[in-house]
Fold each of these.
Amino acid sequence: MQGKRKLILILIDGVSADYFERHSQRLPYLTSLARSGTRVRRMSCPVPGTSLPGRTSMITGKPSQVHGVFGNHIFDGTTFRASRPDDVASPTIARLARAAGLKVACIGHAMVDPEDTDIYEAPWWLRDFIDGSRFTKSLNPDAVSRLLAPRGRAGYVGTMPVSNGGIAEDEPGLQHLLGFACDQQIMRQVADIACSDAAPDLILTEIEMPDVIQHFFGYETEASHWAIATADLLVGELHHRLERAGKLDEYAIAIASDHGHSQIDTAILTDVVLPGVLCEPEGATLHVVVNNDAHRKEITARLAEFGADYIGNDHVPEGVRASIATYVAPHRHSFEVSRTDHNGAGALGKPRYISSHGLRPGAPADDRFAILYGAGIAQGVVESAAAEDFFPALTTILGLSAGKGEDGLVSARIL
């Protein structure tokens, strides 16, 4: 492989290895890149297999217990709160690149500290992300207005007020259409920056809506096929823009997902099963704050009545490990909090998310795919890789010494 070059890292949220394997014919652009470059058929997830741990493992090369983001929400000693970029305890690819004198742009990628970038656009889908409010994949009106405002040569030339039009976030409608529009605008910004005269050395971005649509419309449904095909089109548009601008040979493109997806039939309602107990659902994974070993055993026995298993806490950072017990739901179940219309109907209910992730550690449905493409990247297939193997491939592309492991050898798992 040739020496260092520029890199565009694209996260496509929620596309499983199984989905890419079975439906590659629906994804012509991603399939073409995979055939021309290096494809990783199956890349495992950190524990749990949810959004922010998955993103953080990709950009640090460390497991959850090391980088510190052991859930979309982490326990701070008092309560669970949304994970933030300043919770990441390991250097990210953005920090290493900037420390090496490279120009870094983050365009909507979560868990990147703005201080580690030269150009920064926050995720459009995460309200008050930097302030650490509750992790919610929903429209941030300010971000959406900014992204979708009409633009001219001099920049923004108008505003577009955004409202959800009274449509609930778990119903089809304006929320989802605006989400797709934001994904499209984010990728166009990436292309604008990459094709500019002062193109960054590293651009990090993500395409969000495939995960959202699968949660609400189901795995391998027509709506989800369309959402993932739209992500494929956005990658194709970026590729064409780079090619037309004569920039394609300057950049390597790394594409991966943060986790997989799997059908969910039943929700275990944690506030009903464990009333008064501080806990945090992470898809099919549940983190519970326990007082002592006897309390943990009591919680374990109660959850076992619903088929949930205790899986330990090795994935939790040492500082809070003793306070956390982690459980996994049985097949096609997940953990949720009851909604206002539950009316005391019992501990099991209809899930809000009819497809989800954060499954039992090692579950194939949570595996994700990865593609590395560009000049100097060999054509081939890697059958399997660990979550932590993706990062050394990124550092190798950028020519950063952090691509070397503790043994002094560049990881050969992917490149």
Note: The chain is about 30% helix and 20% strand.
Amino acid sequence: MAYVLTKLLRMQGNTVLAVGTGEEAITAVGEFQPDVILLDIGFPEMSGYETCRIIRELPGGQDILIIAQSGWGSPSDRRQSREAGFDHHLVKPVEMKTLLKLVEESGRATSRD
């Protein structure tokens, strides 16, 4: 699924970096300086919740739009996402139209030159 979203986002003119672990995501924030992060809750070794909390503590971490991507969408799951610092919670499969709308409404840039 990450491959498909990455490809679709690039086709929309976005610069995209896909990583496979929470640690890689945290490292990438410092190097890549993203405007938006689509973060899976089910990362191996370090959950997306913990990854989000750490990113929020990094310099500039409060300015990033962070969207949870999860197979779970109960009110409890959504509450956990909010408490961890996510701005939005999307249930898989993520609809591209919904994702692009959230980015557009947030005012974050959708492409970089």
Note: The two ends are 26 Å apart (CA to CA).
Amino acid sequence: MVYAIFIWHGVFLALTMAMIDFNTVFPAMITDLGGSKIIFGIIYSLMLGIPYLFSLLFGHFLSTYRYRRKFLIMGIYLRGLAFLGMAAFMLFFGARSPWLVVGSFFIWILLFSLSGGLAGIAYEDIFGKLVAKGERGKLAAARQFASSLAAFGGGWIIARVFSVNSLPFPKNYAFILFIGFIGLIVASIAFWFIKEPPSPVSGEARPSLASLLRSIPNILRENPEFFRFILVENLSSFSLMIMPFYMIYAKDMFSVSDVYIGRYLLFQIGGTIASNLLWGWMSGRYDSRRVVRFCLLLGGVIPIVAIAITHLGADMFSIVFLLVGFVFSGRRVGFEPYLLDIIPADNRPVYLGIRGTLNVLVVLLPVLGGVIIHFAGYLPVFALVAAVMFLASLLLNGRQAGYS
């Protein structure tokens, strides 16, 4: 039953997120609305960074509640509202006032990110409570495989929407955003069937947020594996930062039409499906840390491949998105189970909050990447990403200690 609940949610969430895929659909949408690379970088920073900036606050808030399911469901519904708002603005203003739509996205993405941050911490805590340590990697791989199949269906929808003349801009984007709204509502149904065990809540007065902030250095000193995870995850943000710029790079280098949005997305999803066999085997044979390390190495290889095959044309550039799919899938199978293995179960929301708040680079890098690309071009950013990802993989050494 537990497997079915998480896989159900994963399937419909994947279908939803394909409608606003951060690496293909979303950058193409902002570009078609006339947004610059810098504007896109700012919006992308909001999308990625806001959940992390507020995660300590959310973790501190959730730590006082024995049951966190209601916050998970509330967060999903608010995310659905953000999809609906983006769809409405795109439909009614996309053609005649594109900058109004871009401006509204700052509000909708803020809501999308804040609600996702609250829902994400509640989700990880519930996942940790319901799934035993040795089973987390296996379930993550099974969920990712099923999600990849659903995402492939979403990619097929994207490809169809952008290849038919009956849905010109902006109706095409409005339509897929509305599908995303429906997908989130359906995805939330599974969590109504969860039998959530109570979380331990101390009878003592909880520490204030300020005192919790002051305690972070001690927590990091006492948990070196946790500190190393935060450091590595910050460095891995370089790989996340560059992923959506591959689509903009393709538009700049090859002048590809929107038909390539669906084509590249299908290759990306194909990579997630094909790689699940690798990640599932690696997680079962070794551990989640090995999956993370391999993802880091692959994240450093992709920008090198992108530069090397540019002269082969837009069709061969699909290989880049295939490899992005490998990394995207591996991050989901590796990072979250690895984190849950190394933090104490009785204080999980707080540790998840600390992890998010200290993941500062994910907030800054998309803006920085957009600025550097705008003024210096793609090559310096691609080279920097490759170097940092190889460095991050070297830091992930040593024996793993952990909690159940």
Note: Residues 145 and 276 are 6 Å apart (CA to CA).
